[in-house]
Amino acid sequence: MSGLAGAAALLLANAALPARADTVSLFCSSSGSEYEICKAGADAWARQTGNEVRINKMPAAWDEALPLYQQLLSAQSTDADVLLLDVVWVGLLQKNLLDLNADLSKDDIAQHFPATVAAGTVNGRLVALPWYTDTGLMFYRKDLLAKYGKPVPKTWAELTETAKAVQDGERAAGNKDIWGYVWQGKSYEGLTCDAIEWTASSGGGTIIDDKGAITIDNAKAAGALALAHGWVGSITPPGALNYDEEGSRSVFETGNAVFLRNWAYVWGTSQAAGAPLVGKVGVAALPVGAAGERSSGCMGTAHLGISKYTRHKDAALSLLHFLAGKDEQKRRAIAGAYNPTIAALYDDADVLKALPFLKDAEAAFAESAVRPSAITGSSYNRVSQAFFKAVHGVLGGDTEAGPALKTLAEDLATIKAAGKW
Description:
CATH class of the domain at 21-134 and 299-366: Alpha Beta
Protein name: Trehalose/maltose transport system substrate-binding protein
Family: Belongs to the bacterial solute-binding protein 1 family.
Main location: periplasm
Pfam family, one: SBP_bac_1
Shape: globular
Radius of gyration: 24 Å
Organism: Labrys wisconsinensis
Strand order of the largest sheet: 8-9-7-10
CATH superfamily of the domain at 21-134 and 299-366: Periplasmic binding protein-like II
Largest sheet: 4 strands, mixed
């Protein structure tokens, strides 16, 4: 056989072979049923594409995953391809993540809620695509509002009045342990979320704007915190200053609160078989400071990003596109109650059957307030700690809101100078 004929034969033989499969590394949460639901999606993509997925189990406590990511990325490891990211990690890790704008279509990006896309964008670079979302929501006792002829409150002032009226009525009827409104008042990241909801929905901003300017020292933010301080001991138990999500949920689900601020998972726990409040709970977007303001539940979105050190860029992009796509988000919503980031799924009959509260809370998911983690990057933890400590002091009566926010702004300026966000 001549050299030319041999080369042609080799080309024909190679053409008959399947394309070389890639093995893509994916990080999945190991908390509860999350791992199995994540794995099912990855396996479906592998069957569809002929590639393979190597799944790395994240710790159940997500905070423990961040140091692992930092170690892998700082070493420019090729063992990390597609990363599951908490929204507040995006700014911290963004320099080690691919810009997805060049590889995803505008339609692919635009189908997600704009706020979730913005949360994955740093300095114009889309480094993380929304996968599922969460936001602060208002849970309420439908039966008690009906009993007292009260509508679902739309403003914080209406919530204050309604919570007090129902609380007082129930106490007069013999339920001495009931409170009007419970939330997360402990000095931790959860309080940052609650307080940003108060300030943002009152026109007081989100501590730092998207240009990096410190905005928290303003009258509307101070007014929102002063109102919240007034709840403590009136419609909110003083012990709420030590509540986290589970502490506040317990009070509500034992029948001892009219209103609760918490995350979407409470729908499932409150409506579980045999739970005391089955059929008695409603869900709505959180109130606003005044008519015309946006409801601003704190965003808790999970994103997917790709390490810029990946050796399998095309396959990693394909996996990310599949996992964050409409069909997979629908499956995850039905199978695991993961709230979609794609607006069209909030009109999907199958999704609404599985998650009946979604339609009532759509505005909350669409208009979430974003913590300033992207703009502050590695300084975010210091920013958040300074904020929730200042807020906790106001709630506990250690200082008034106006002076506390003035001091906070000065502290944040020092952090900014050191961190140079």
